[in-house]
Amino acid sequence: MTDHTGVLQELVDGTWREPGSNTQYDIGIKNIVIRESLEGQEAQLIADLYQNKKITIVSDPFTHAAYGQRIFNALTKDNSNQVSEFVWQTAQCSDRGVAEVQAATKDAEVLIAVGSGTINDSVKYACFLDDKPYSVFATSPMNAFTTGTASVSFGGFKKSISCRGAEGIFFDLAILSACPPRLISAAFADVICRTTAQVDWLMSHILFDTFYTQTPYTLLAYDEPDMIANAERMLSGDTKALGMLTRISAIMGLGTRFNNTTHSGSMAEHQISHYIDMFAGDKHPKSSHGEQVGVATITMSHLHNHVLTNATPPVMKATHIPESYLLEKFGSDIGNNMIEQTKIKALTDASADALNQRFADEWDSIRTQLQAAMLPYDQLSSAMAAAGCQLTATDLELDTDFYLEAVQGARFIRDRFSMLDVIDDSVGLASVTDSLPL
Ligand SMILES: [Zn+2]
Question: What is the pTM for the complete model shown?
Answer without folding.
Answer: 0.94
